[in-house]
């Protein structure tokens, strides 16, 4: 019997006799439709690209592990955090936000920071950014915001008019805009940036006691950022610079690592804290809620196949495990639906069955059928619940911890409307050199805006955060400096 280990076959396993010449009627053709190998190759090629992500299209990923270094079981019953020294395998995807799949890595943009923990209780996804805050705080504004970051429907060009018009009409964006336009707006590599869960989440312990929590991944490589001119040069010469750097570092054994810390807030503090703790445009002061070490994340293995692992990886902030739950954060509440729904559209209803997304824990569901159902589809087992045939049942001990809600059903904003204090505090924390670069970056980004009305409206926001901040931007744009009396 001949060796078949290196034999080319069709997708249905039949040996391929000729992979260099299509079947034709005579030497000149035409090509015959009965050449099913040719038809399969062309048809599959046409379908090799799943739709790219609407946001976070360009990214890089790696495998690794998380090791617990501090026992925080008094705050959460999550099994993967239950004991010091425990290791959990994980997969991380870093990304830019606004650009397309072929865009440059070194553009000024937030970076996605998504972690999939393969825990014994199912997958836990922590889907954040390299910034602790975001541009908006209500998911209903997200499609409009992302439209401003994409291309003009007529010119198919990036549109600074839309970007700054939206930001100037959405003052809650000021904190994130200040971070984006600062040195940290262009990280040197994916390895040299912090990561954040950004949102507020809820931890629940074995006794059913809950706290609010925020996540901080602190890079052990140190923070490094790119000079604007160097970033632009790299965008032209090596647009995959960050992707290449991450892959090569891991391949050479220089495994990047982050220390995971959390801030813990008692439930009752949410009613009295000076900022709404569920507003993702705000941070919690570390003086009020100090960082507490949890563990260490290490990336030590590159993907074997980019498409199968990085492109098909699906993350959702709604992928929780017992002991970790959602908060009333309005942006988070919207993302709980939107992310999984995006994956159902982009990859398919059975995306969690793919190897990169499949939990290490056993899964027992009554979900059946759907495109690309490539497992046993439940076989002949019972397919509904409740049932009398011994099918999987709910576990009452894993019910979500209750929390009180009240009020009138209505479309309302957060109570706190202070969009300026934290942005001003950040500006004043910067050195003079960092402030100068921040202002230069903002001026450069705003100069193409056609309407002075938009520029002046945005300058007023900078001025309310800090008068010097507004004055320097105004002077850089050659526009009137706002009056100190507003």
Automatic annotation (TrEMBL):
Catalytic center residues: 56, 129
Keywords, sorted A to Z: Heme, Hydrogen peroxide, Iron, Metal-binding, Oxidoreductase, Peroxidase
Catalase core domain residues: 9-393
Cofactor(s) recorded in Swiss-Prot or TrEMBL: heme
Coiled coil segments of this chain: none
GO cellular component, one term: cytoplasm
SMART domains: Catalase (SM01060)
Keyword Coiled coil: no
E.C. no: 1.11.1.6
Region listing for Disordered, in residue ranges: 1-29
Pfam families found in the cross-reference section: Catalase, Catalase-rel
Residue ranges with Polar residues bias: 1-25
Gene Ontology MF terms: catalase activity; heme binding; metal ion binding
Family to which the UniProt record says this protein belongs: Belongs to the catalase family.
PANTHER family on file: CATALASE
Protein name: Catalase
């Amino acid at each position: 019997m001949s060796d078949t280990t290196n034999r080319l076959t069709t997708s249905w396993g039949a040996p391929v006799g000729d992979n260099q010449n299509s079947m034709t009627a005579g030497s000149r053709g035409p090509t015959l439709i009965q050449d099913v190998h040719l038809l399969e190759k062309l048809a599959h090629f046409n379908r090799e690209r799943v739709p790219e992500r609407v946001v976070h299209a360009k990214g890089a990923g790696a495998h690794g592990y998380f090791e617990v270094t501090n026992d925080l079981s008094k705050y959460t019953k999550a099994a993967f955090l239950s004991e010091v020294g425990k290791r959990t395998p994980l997969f991380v995807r870093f990304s830019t936000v606004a650009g397309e799949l072929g865009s440059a890595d070194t553009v000024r943009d937030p970076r996605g920071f998504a972690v999939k923990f393969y825990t014994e209780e199912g997958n836990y996804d922590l889907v954040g950014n390299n910034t602790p805050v975001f541009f908006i705080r209500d998911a209903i504004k997200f499609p409009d915001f992302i439209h401003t970051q994409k291309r003009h429907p007529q010119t198919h060009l990036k549109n600074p008019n839309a970007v700054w018009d939206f930001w100037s009409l959405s003052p809650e964006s000021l904190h994130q805009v200040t971070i984006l336009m600062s040195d940290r707006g262009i990280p040197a590599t994916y390895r040299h940036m912090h990561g954040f869960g950004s949102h507020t989440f809820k931890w629940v312990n074995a006794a059913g006691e809950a706290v609010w929590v925020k996540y901080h991944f602190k890079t052990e490589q140190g923070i490094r950022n790119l000079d604007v001119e160097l970033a632009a040069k790299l965008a032209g010469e090596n647009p995959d610079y960050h992707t290449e750097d991450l892959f090569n570092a891991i391949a050479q054994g220089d495994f990047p690592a982050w220390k995971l810390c959390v801030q813990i807030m008692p439930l009752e503090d949410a009613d009295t804290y000076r900022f709404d703790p569920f507003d993702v445009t705000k941070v919690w002061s570390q003086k009020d809620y100090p960082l507490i070490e949890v563990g260490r994340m290490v990336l030590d293995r590159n993907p074997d196949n980019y498409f199968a692992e990085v492109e098909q990886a699906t993350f959702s902030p709604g992928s929780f495990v017992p002991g970790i739950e959602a908060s009333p954060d309005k942006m988070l509440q919207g993302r709980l639906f939107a992310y999984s729904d995006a994956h159902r559209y982009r990859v398919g209803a059975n995306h969690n069955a793919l190897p990169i997304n499949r939990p290490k824990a056993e899964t027992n569901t009554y979900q059946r059928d759907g495109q690309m159902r490539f497992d046993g589809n439940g076989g002949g087992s019972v397919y509904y619940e409740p049932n009398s045939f011994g099918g999987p049942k709910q576990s009452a001990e894993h019910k979500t911890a209750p929390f009180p809600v009240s009020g009138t059903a209505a479309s309302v904003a957060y109570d706190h409307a202070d969009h300026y204090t934290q942005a001003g505090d950040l500006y004043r924390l910067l050195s003079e050199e960092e402030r100068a670069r921040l202002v230069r970056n903002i001026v450069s980004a705003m100069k193409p805006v056609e309407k002075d009305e938009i520029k002046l409206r945005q300058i007023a926001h900078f001025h309310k955060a800090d008068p010097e901040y507004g004055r320097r931007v105004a002077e850089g744009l050659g526009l009137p400096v706002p009056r100190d009396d507003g």
